[in-house]
């Protein structure tokens, strides 16, 4: 151990992220005793910004360096708070509002089954993108489109799935994350999904393109004056798009 690593202290560490949030929170499930080595510095842009408070100082235990989230948040100017009701650490702004209801679903040409092979809407199931778990709050749209009808852009008229919502001009924005779920991809790297948000007059509010393993987080869509919201999902092949934690504000 290097000479600048000093102040060996034995203590009980609970394997819960809140144990490193602040010293004022206790959450020790399956606790074990560790030897912690203090004296680690926090450097930012060449400047020593190691916290003076003992409960915010980084340390080394079992060969790993631990830095309290509160200390990192202070360095980066990001709020870090503990949500005891949901047993969660909240990094950044807390997103609060009304959960987006499940939409009505319609197809570009439901009479022609050769154009759109399948569509399925599921809610509150585990969403996994690029092998990372994004929880189960929201809904997923699985659709299988015929590339013969989609053309190069994947926007053939028979290949559109319409999701329809009715915010009724009661909200200022919709905040959500969008990603291409790992399921149904069959090793293909050519799958693309275009997700277009439109108002009741057909004006485009937001246009998102997703590929295999991709995700766009904290998307904000302006809903001022929007009575009816329509989401168009296009693209050839079979894939699943996750609508993660959609909140109306």
Structural class, please?
mainly beta
What is the chain-wise order of helices and strands?
EEEEEEHEEEEEEEEHEEEEEEE
State the low-pLDDT regions, or none.
10-26, 112-117, 148-158
The counted number of beta strands is 21
Helix content range of the residues, please? Answer: under 10%
Arithmetic mean of pLDDT: 79
Largest sheet: 6 strands, antiparallel
Q: Using only CA atoms, what is the Rg?
A: 24 Å
Enumerate how many helices there are, as a single number: 2
Residue share in β-strands: over 45%
Task: Name the shape in a single word.
Answer: elongated
C-alpha termini separation = 51 Å
Helix and strand arrangement:
Blueprint: E1 6-13, E2 32-38, E3 43-44, E4 47-48, E5 59-61, E6 64-66, H1 69-76, E7 80-83, E8 88-91, E9 98-99, E10 104-107, E11 116-123, E12 128-129, E13 132-133, E14 138-145, H2 147-150, E15 161-165, E16 173-180, E17 192-198, E18 204-211, E19 215-222, E20 229-234, E21 237-248
Antiparallel strand pairs: 1-2, 2-5, 3-4, 5-6, 7-8, 9-21, 10-15, 11-14, 12-13, 14-21, 15-20, 16-19, 16-21, 17-18, 17-20
């Amino acid at each position: 151990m290097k000479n600048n690593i000093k102040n060996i202290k034995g203590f009980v560490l609970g394997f819960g992220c809140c144990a490193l949030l602040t010293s004022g929170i206790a959450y020790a499930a399956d606790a074990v005793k560790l030897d912690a080595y203090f004296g680690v510095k926090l450097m930012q842009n060449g400047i020593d910004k190691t916290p003076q408070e003992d409960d915010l100082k980084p340390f080394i235990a079992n060969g790993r360096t631990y830095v309290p989230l509160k200390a990192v948040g202070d360095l980066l100017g990001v709020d870090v708070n503990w949500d005891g009701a949901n047993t969660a650490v909240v990094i950044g702004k807390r997103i609060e509002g009304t959960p987006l209801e499940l939409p009505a679903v319609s197809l570009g040409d439901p009479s022609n089954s050769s154009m759109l092979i399948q569509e399925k809407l599921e809610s509150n199931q585990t969403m996994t993108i690029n092998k990372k778990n994004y929880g189960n709050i929201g809904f997923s749209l699985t659709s299988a489109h015929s590339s013969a009808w989609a053309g190069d852009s994947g926007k053939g008229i028979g290949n559109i799935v319409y999701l329809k919502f009715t915010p009724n001009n009661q909200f200022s924005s919709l905040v959500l994350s969008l990603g291409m779920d790992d399921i149904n991809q069959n090793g293909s790297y050519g799958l693309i999904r275009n997700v277009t948000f439109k108002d009741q007059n057909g004006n485009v509010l937001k246009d998102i393109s997703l590929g295999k393993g991709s995700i766009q987080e904290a998307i904000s869509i302006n809903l001022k004056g929007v009575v009816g919201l329509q989401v168009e999902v296009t693209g050839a092949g079979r894939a699943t798009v996750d609508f993660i934690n959609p909140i109306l504000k």
